[in-house]
Amino acid sequence: MLSVSNLSKIYGSGCGLCLELTGPGVGSNICPKCHSIVACARIDLDVYPGEIVGIVGESGSGKSTLIKLLHFDQAPTSGYAYLQGFEDGQVDMFAVSNQKKRWLRNYQLGIVYQNPNAGLNMEFSCGGNIADKLIAADWYNYTRIRSRAAELLQKTELPVQRMDELPKRFSGGMQQRVQIAKALANNPPLLLLDEVTTGLDVSVQAQVLRLIRQIQSALQIAMVVVSHDFAVIRMLTERTLVMRNGRVVESGLTDQVMEDPHHPYTQLLINSML
Amino acid sequence: MSAILQVEDLSKVFVLHSVEGKRIVGCQQVGFTVRAGEFVGITGNSGGGKTTILKCLYRTYLPSSGKILFDSELFGKIDLVNSTERDIIAIRKHEISYVAQFLQVLPQMTALEVVVEALTERGLSYEHSHIQASSILRHFQLPGNLWDILPHTFSGGEKLRLNLARAMVWRPRLLLLDEPTASLDEQSKIPVRDMIKNLKEAGTAMVGVFHDLSFMKDVVDRHFQMHQGQLREAGIA
Fold first, then answer.
1. Rounded CA separation B140/A73 (Å)
2. How far apart are the first and last CA of chain A?
3. What pLDDT digit, counting tens, does each position of B134-149 carry?
4. Higher pLDDT residue, A201 or A146?
5. Residue A212, SS3 per DSSP
């Protein structure tokens, strides 16, 4: 349903040699010639309907940049992506007008950021945040919006009676659930999750993981889950990509990547797990 | 009966990059066949490579060479060694099940939910799943007061029975069992033996790894011994 090919993002001027002079082979993603940062280099990624794909790697490996590129938060330096729900998967979604990109973001994608401040407007009520996403997707009927928001809060196990409160008064786990409710508001076929359980204590982390699994099995939404935590990846995904220095160094079935890793870096990651 | 699984010249070598590329041989040139309704048992010393074979068959390990020909209902005859990840995921969902030595479940899921989920994620309705899950937990004599409890509080034997229930409840075409009686007392082994016989009659092919020789002799049709990564037929059981 999503097919990404040759996706690269370089921060800085770029010199044409950036991709050749960086990577896990040299152990750096900073170009020695022009000092640009290669955040993602020639990434290929396929996501099938209803599946959860994991992306794992250390800080600075390019995982979050990849998610931001897919959500149009940033523009790629080069590369293509085709989404089944957009022009039958025939048109590169990076090559279209901003108006169409907004349509894609509002109708085809949902995102949950590590930091709730990035995904929520803390000065809007909980319901207001959900309404924000619905209005962007052309919902105009006040009563319908409110009942949809209530339904989403229920689905994400949040107290409906707190719909009109500001999310800044909520705990971290609840804020994360408001983000998930907002991301799900217009039934997107693809959900992007960036370190959603990082920073939550373990009991809340377990609740959020469980919620994500329930959503996936009930709604058959495809997801890309980015995490530095192999335990999270193991709980949620069947396939995983391992990133380092902006590259995908290994990919495979999640249990195979964890129990029979082939790349030296993946072996190091696994050997470093608690 | 036709062969469901045909293993040819299967080898697995691990390369450890943290120890200067040291090579560890898991198994080498393993070959055997399993037919529908047949149970192949593998015994051998710890570290001899028994589990390595099972994990290669499930593709948790990527084999270094050889063939694993599986007679799939979804794909016809397929070599699991070089099948795509997508195909393996589909086969795991509908045809091959694995009972690991250790139970791994999502936190905050009760024992009953674990078994119900094994069925609902294969497309069964919640009501049906609930009935079948209850029935298999009763069969394995998991005490009813444990059903709505989180499995990480269970004893070793209770965890194992839950693990068996989850893997057997959806009646796979091929079942891989890693020490299915390791932490069970004699009384608890009886329902395991009965369930294995049930599945055999229904045509499930099985490969099991054992230390428990007396139990194994009761259920297997053929017995192989693993020695230093190589497999030898130990005779008809």
1. 53
2. 35
3. 999 999 999 999 999 9
4. A146
5. helix
pTM exceeding 0.80 = yes
| Rounded distance between C-alpha atoms, residue B183 and residue B154, angstroms | 12
- Residue B129 makes CB contacts below 8 A (sequence gap 6+) with B116, B117, B119, B120
Contact of A223 with A193, CB cutoff 8 Å: yes
Domain boundaries defined on chain A: 2-108+188-273, 116-187
CATH number of this structure's domain A2-108+188-273, picked from the four choices 3.30.70.100, 3.30.160.150, 3.30.230.10, 3.40.50.300 = 3.40.50.300
Residues B174-197: pLDDT tens digits?
Answer: 999 999 998 889 999 999 999 999
- A81 to each of A95, A247, B35, how far by Cα in Å? 9, 17, 45
At B88, list the tokens: 């393996």
Using CA atoms, how far apart are residues B30 and B73, in angstroms rounded to an integer?
Answer: 25
Nearest to B61 among A206, A235, A256 (CB): A256
Q: Is A264 near chain B, with CB under 8 Å?
A: yes
Numbered residues of chain B with Cβ closer than 8 Å to any chain A Cβ: 14-18, 55, 59-62, 85-86, 88-89, 104, 106-109, 117, 120-121
Tokens of A220: 């058959």
Please tell me if residue A3 touches chain B, with a CB cutoff of 8 Å.
no
What structural domains and CATH numbers belong to chain B? 3-234 (3.40.50.300)
CA-nearest of B63, B72, B85, B48 to B9 is B63
Question: Which residues are bridge partners to A43 per DSSP?
Answer: A7
Count interface pairs A-B at CB distance under 8 A.
54
How far does the CA of residue B2 sit from the closest CA of chain A (Å)?
Answer: 29
A230 vs chain B: nearest CA distance in angstroms?
Answer: 14
- CB-nearest to A260 from B17, B60, B89 is B60
Parallel/antiparallel/unpaired status of strands A2-11 and A78-83: antiparallel
CB B128 within 8 A of CB B119: yes
Q: Report pLDDT for B107.
A: 78
| CA–CA distance, B177 with B139 (Å, rounded to integer) | 18
Residue-wise pLDDT tens digits, A35-74:
999 999 999 999 999 999 999 998 889 999 999 999 999 9
| Residue among A206, A259, A267 whose CB faces B55 most closely | A259
